Amino acid sequence: MATQVVMPKLSPTMEEGQLSRWLKNEGDKVSVGEGLAEIDTDKATMEAQALASGVLRKILVPAGETVPLGAIIAIIGEPDEDISALLTEASSGAAQAEKKEQIEESTQGRAYGAPDELAQVVPGGERTQATVEGQPVKGDVGGAPSAPQEAAPQTQPSGGNGQRGDGRLIVSPIAARMAAEAGINLHSLKGTGPGGRIVKRDIEEAMKGGAPQPQAQPQAQPEQPAVQQAPARQPAVQPEGGAAPYREENVTTMRATIARRLVTSLGPIPHIFLTTEVEMDKTVEMRRQLNELDPENKVSLNDFVIKVAAVALMQHPAVNASFQEKAVRYYERADIGVAVALENGLITPVVRNANAKSVGQISREVKELAERARNRKLTPEEYTGATFSVSNLGMFGITEFTALINPPEACILAVGAMTPTPVVREGEVTVRQIMRVTLSCDHRIVDGATGAKFLQTLKKILENPLYLIA
Amino acid sequence: MAVITMREALNQAMREEMRRDENIFLMGEEVAAYQGAYKVSKGLLEEFGDKRVVDSPITELGFAGLGVGAAMVGLRPIIEFMTFNFSILATDQIINSAAKMRYMSGGQFKIPIVFRGPNGSAFQVSSQHSQALESWYAHFPGLKVVMPSTPADAKGLLKSAIRDDDPVIFLEQERMYGNKGEVPDGEDFLIPLGQADVKREGTDCTVVARSMTVPLALKAAEELEKQGVSVEVIDPRTIRPLDIETIVNSVKKTNRVVVAEESHAFCGVGAEISAQVMEHAFDYLDAPVKRLSGADAPMPYAKNLERLALPDVERIVKAVREVSYLD
Question: Model's pTM, two decimal places?
Answer without folding.
Answer: 0.52
